[in-house]
Amino acid sequence: MKQLVILSGKGGTGKTSITAAFAHLAAKGPLAGKVILADADVDAANLELVLQPTLVEQQDFKGGKVAVIDQETCASCGDCQAVCRFDAINYADGLYVVDPIACDGCAACVYQCPTESISMREQIAGQFYFSESRYGPLYHANLLPGQENSGKLVTLVKQRARLQALDENRELVIVDGPPGIGCPVISAVSGADLALVVAEPTVSGVHDMHRALDTLKHFGVRALVVINKADIFPAGADEIEAFCHQQSIETVGRIPFDLTVASAMVAGEAVTAFQPQAPSSIAIRQVWERVSRLLS
Ligand code: SF4
Ligand code: SF4
């Protein structure tokens, strides 16, 4: 079983559109019935918007702990507020109250409280989902606003996808990775066999691609690059290809800017299924052929 993760240094590069198209193409080819999908972009999961799956299972995801003050026993001394370095304890209407968004869960206030009125409680940080999509099982999740531990939630999504793949002898897990280079990205690339970085030929796109490639190099994951919207700035696309060539990183194609991609998203369909002969669909199909060959 192999894991392919699709990444980008920043959001909005077309990563999810490409993932959805790969899911469609995999389901129509020799890998039909052998693929599991995972949306590891738990801060802004949107693969389900394109695949429109049927929800099978939903679970609360418990993140870190937050402090809670028992108002019955609190003596209103203010010691907890004084010790809190995160300004997470507010005083209003004669009561000390913890702001759960600001609370870092350090528990310093618990030890400071003279009346043992503060306890640490687990909080629900998000939701985990398992769904069936037209292109295969999909694991996805949604981190609530202001919550941390997105790396843990990504790990849960990937673990469940991997376990099903192993149980059912499936050959490939396709992971729609988060943008950036933070903890969720590190969780998403962990254990991956191949990473496809979706780069845009813009100044910020090239800069963010470098960061994504550096992260993959650091973790020893083989990287490929695809240039999306390549025709909006061909000189930038040339620069990306030259850089990749110099670094011995394979570029697996150029996808043109194509409004069909947006239309397919609005229609809730992978662009390769929505309009197979659209310029973007043709280019993505060629990229998929190269990537799937490299995976096998
Ligand atoms: S647990 Fe830490 S961050 Fe949270 S309220 Fe107490 S002292 Fe502040
Ligand atoms: S330290 Fe304890 S007793 Fe004092 S205000 Fe905070 S919760 Fe109340």
List how many beta strands DSSP finds. Answer: 11
Q: What's the CATH H-level superfamily name of the largest domain?
A: P-loop containing nucleotide triphosphate hydrolases
- Unreliable stretches (pLDDT < 50, length at least 5) are none
Count of folded domains: 2
Structural class: alpha/beta
**Known CATH architecture of the largest domain:** 3-Layer(aba) Sandwich
Question: Main beta sheet: strand number and arrangement?
Answer: 9 strands, mixed
- β content, as a range? 25-35%
- Secondary-structure element series: EHEHEHEEHEEHEHEHEHEHHH
Walk across the major sheet and give the strand order: 3-6-7-2-8-1-9-10-11
Q: What compounds are bound to the protein?
A: iron/sulfur cluster
How many helices does DSSP assign? 11
From the alpha carbons, calculate the radius of gyration and give it in angstroms.
22 Å
CATH fold-level assignment of the largest domain:
Rossmann fold
Mean of residue pLDDT values: 92
- Global shape: elongated
CATH classification, class level of the largest domain? Alpha Beta
Distance between the termini: 10 Å
Query: Which percent range fits the helix content?
Result: 25-40%
Walkthrough of the structure:
By secondary structure, the chain is of the alpha/beta class. The protein folds into two domains: 2-53 and 134-295, P-loop containing nucleotide triphosphate hydrolases (Rossmann fold, 3-Layer(aba) Sandwich), CATH 3.40.50.300; 64-124, 2-Layer Sandwich (Alpha-Beta Plaits), CATH 3.30.70. Helix content is 38%, strand content 29%. The protein is built from eleven helices and eleven strands. The protein has helices at 15-28, 47-51, 79-83, 108-112, 150-167, 183-189, 203-218, 234-246, 259-267, 271-274, 279-295, and strands at 2-8, 35-39, 54-69, 89-92, 95-98, 118-133, 136-143, 172-179, 194-199, 223-228, 250-255. The strands form two sheets. The protein has a nine-stranded mixed sheet with strand order 3-6-7-2-8-1-9-10-11, with helices on both faces. A two-stranded antiparallel sheet has the order 4-5. α1 (15-28) packs across α11 and α5 (150-167) packs parallel to α6 (183-189). The termini are close together. The mean pLDDT is 92. Bound molecules: iron/sulfur cluster (2 copies). One iron/sulfur cluster (SF4) is lined by residues 69, 74-80, 96, 112-115, 117-118. Residues 67, 83-84, 86, 88-89, 98, 103-109 line the site of one iron/sulfur cluster.
